[in-house]
Amino acid sequence: MRVITGGVPHIPADCCNIVVPASHPEADAGFIIMEQVGYPGMSGGNTIWVVRVLLAMSMRPMQEPVTELTLEALAGLLRVRAECQGGKVEAVTFRDVPTLAAHLDAVLDVP
Questions:
Q1: 74, 22 contact by CB (below 8 A)
Q2: Can you name one GO molecular function term for this protein (predicted)?
Q3: Which one of the listed residues 29, 30, 32, 43 is annotated catalytic?
Q4: How far is CA 38 from CA 46, 64, 104, in A?
């Protein structure tokens, strides 16, 4: 298990990501997001940091120019694409899990 924290030095971290073995057979790794208010099922920023750490620490093999991974978050599977150059992650994109709409075709009056 690896713990990845985010935040500014000397200020308590906003969140912590725990990298765990995946339980889904399609996933390369799993991660749990721990924030001060709970355990969100998904976060884009946390996903990007987890990918960067997995590849930078050789927890998963990096392939240049593109490394593709599948991560398992509490919300489901995330298909990730990391653009890599010179042994470093330059950019991360991912396909998020499906979400539900609270309202469709709602009219909003915004001043």
A1: no
A2: 4-hydroxyproline epimerase activity
A3: 43
A4: 14, 36, 28
54-63: pLDDT as tens digits: 999 999 999 9
> Quick check: is 23 catalytic?
no
Tokens for 86, please give them: 């010179």
What pTM was estimated for this model as a whole?
0.77
Torsion of the alpha carbons at 6, 9, 12 and 15, rounded to the nearest 10: 0
Amino acid (1-letter code) at residue 88: K
Q: How far apart are CA 80 and CA 42, in angstroms?
A: 13
Distance of alpha carbon 91 from alpha carbon 66, whole angstroms: 10
> Domains plus CATH for the chain?
2-95 (3.10.310.10)
Give residue-wise pLDDT tens across range 96-109. 888 777 888 999 89
